[in-house]
Amino acid sequence: MSETIESEEKSIALECRDLHKHLGEGEMRVHVLRGVNLKLYQGEVSAIVGPSGCGKSTLLYLLGLLDRQDSGQILIKGEEIPPDQDGAHTRTRGKHIGFVFQFHFLLPEFSAAENVMLPMRKLGRLAEQEMEDRARSLLSDVGLGDKTHRLPSQLSGGEQQRVAIARSLANLPSVLLADEPTGNLDVKNSLMVYQSLTQLAKEKGQAVLIVTHNPELAGKCDRILRMQDGQFIH
Q1: Backbone angles phi, psi at 210, to 5 degrees
Q2: pLDDT tens digit string along 205-233?
Q3: Distance CA 10, CA 18 (A)
Q4: Are 208 and 12 in contact (CB under 8 A)?
Q5: Is 197 part of any domain?
Q6: Does any domain span residue 104?
Q7: Which structural domain range is residue 63 located in?
Q8: H-helix or E-strand containing 78?
Q9: CATH number, domain containing residue 172
Q10: Does residue 181 form part of some domain?
Q11: What pTM value is reported for the model?
Q12: What's the total number of domains in the chain?
């Protein structure tokens, strides 16, 4: 039995219908996701919570088009994304989806601004000066306007994660997916990162989905989605 999580009177940024995913082969094959249905709405922050191994991160990677479902549909802005077309996944991911992971994955030889510009370069929609201006603006939005030229090694852990947030917003994605974004931070920096992440997304009308084991962070979100054994539960 699957469950649909819904809100009212909001535009749907991302939707999945009856998602199934198995991992492993033969006797080790595990049914990780069991008919998951979910709608993410613009300007809304949702948190997925649940025990380790319940399917949280697997779902996030499917929704982010980093992996393929065995069956079911994923729709972004009302358009179904074919599960068997890598090119469609890559294009859609670059245009519509931003990621923030537990580890910031900044390139150490590039400045904060250059790291933020990387997704823009890959998408190829903006001129060089436009990319630079946008990177500076985003870093200013997360409180790093005076550190745009610093290398990651010259930034604190919390600052590095805020650079990662700015980078995730570089292409104005429809959906922002975050996997334990404060997992390596202390309480003070966790709060700053969460506020940067959610405030910017709400201002820009993006849907945010956070996978977290942090109950305090989850409690600040608009919705808490509880997962157990590959399904959402009440």
Answers
A1: -115, 125
A2: 889 999 988 888 888 899 999 999 889 98
A3: 21
A4: no
A5: yes
A6: yes
A7: 41-68+84-233
A8: none
A9: 3.40.50.300
A10: yes
A11: 0.84
A12: 1
